[in-house]
Amino acid sequence: MNAIEMNKVTFRYDNGIEALKDITLTIPIGVKVALLGPNGAGKSTLLHHLNGLKVPNEGTISILGNMVTKKNAHFIREQVGLVFQDPDDQVFSGTVWDDVAFGPRNLHMSEEDINEMCTVALGNVGMLEYKDRAPYHLSYGQKKRVAIAGILAMRPDIVILDEPMAFLDPAGQDEIAGLLQGLHYMGKTILLSTHDVNFAASWADMVVLLKDGKILAVGDNQLLADEKYIREANLHLPIIARTFKMVPEFSSNKLPINEQEAFRLLFKQLNEKDKYEY
Ligand SMILES: Nc1ncnc2c1ncn2[C@@H]1O[C@H](COP(=O)(O)OP(=O)(O)OP(=O)(O)O)[C@@H](O)[C@H]1O
Questions:
Q1: I want to staple 73 with a disulfide (CB 3.0 to 4.6 A). Which of 21, 52, 191, 276 is the partner?
Q2: CA–CA distance, 259 with 34 (Å, rounded to integer)
Q3: 254 and 189 co-located in one domain
């Protein structure tokens, strides 16, 4: 069984724009997936299909072995939590607490369970002390964290985030990255869209490149060092790959795409140099 299976999915908006064209994609359980592509590639449209918010015109989607249909939308939303790109589309209650409790209350959980889930979820995103505040008065980054807490409180197995780092300051981005790592250790499958190749290169196990509603390529994070695809997807190489490309000794090798890979490559190079000298 896989976390997500999309089979020949096509989706058209009412104005006739075909935003997804024949998408076939399999995402195994527990992986960290980054979806990248130019503006208008169809990333948000694709993510909105995964919790039944949008339904394909053609093709099928299954989540943890269950076909997504209008009838089982409730069940699918328990399995898949979707964090929208703009927290103002998601955070609307009078207090932070009520906002995070909204989902669990809809699932008719007991007050005791709701208390526990909201406390843990708000603690996870570092927002427990804001629980009585009005979301309206929070900063963008704080609202984003409340939106994530609202999803975590439902304890979904699959967490989908549409550009979770957008408009966050660097420290806020690091916090979200840490939170995502924590979710990964909890065994969740995570799929997010991003324009940040450096983050995707250091975080993702699996990279999906989308362009004009079609899948351009799927692979591990080393895909982000493939200049052909990078150019086609309007991206640029991760900064470490660009740096190593400038060094003649490394430029013809497989380029490292993150700090770990760079360290491994340098270490190997140093060892080989030692062998030669002694
Ligand atoms: N509500 C809508 N009605 C009609 N067309 C839409 C609608 N939302 C998106 N589109 C169109 O569908 C295509 C895919 O848009 P989508 O928002 O999914 O792209 P994206 O990859 O998420 O872009 P970005 O990186 O800018 O967020 C675009 O051509 C867009 O103009």
A1: 52
A2: 18
A3: no
Answer yes or no: do 229 and 251 share one domain: no
141 and 92: one domain? yes
CA of 49 relative to ligand 1 center, distance in Å: 13
264 residue type, one letter: R
Task: Label residue 238 exposed, middle or buried (CB < 10 Å: 0-12, 13-18, 19+).
Answer: buried
Among residues of the chain, what percentage have pLDDT more than 70?
97
How many domains does one find in the chain? 2
Is the distance from the beta carbon of residue 235 to the nearest atom of ligand 1 less than 6 Å?
no
Question: DSSP class of residue 222?
Answer: G
In the predicted structure, residue 224 carries a pLDDT above the cut 80: yes
Distance CA 116, CA 101 (A): 10
In angstroms, what CA-CA distances link 209 with 3, 35, 36, 176, 215? 19, 6, 5, 22, 6
Sheet of strand 189-193, all strands in order from the earlier edge strand to the far edge: 80-83, 158-162, 189-193, 32-36, 206-211, 214-219
For residue 274, pLDDT beyond 70: no
What per-residue confidence (pLDDT) applies to 278?
A: 53
Instruction: Name the DSSP class of 244.
Output: H
Question: What is the 17 CA–ligand 1 centroid distance (Å)?
Answer: 9
Which residues form the domain of 57?
Answer: 4-236
Task: Look up residue 193 and give its two tokens.
Answer: 């869209």
Ligand 1 atom nearest residue 210's Cα:
21
CA 42–ligand 1 middle distance (angstroms): 6
Here the CATH number for the domain that contains residue 76 is 3.40.50.300
Tell me the best of 44, 210, 215 to mutate to test the pocket of ligand 1, counting ligand atoms within 8 Å of each CB and taking the most.
44
| 200 plus 270 within the same structural domain | no
Residue 39 beta carbon below 6 angstroms from any ligand 1 atom: yes
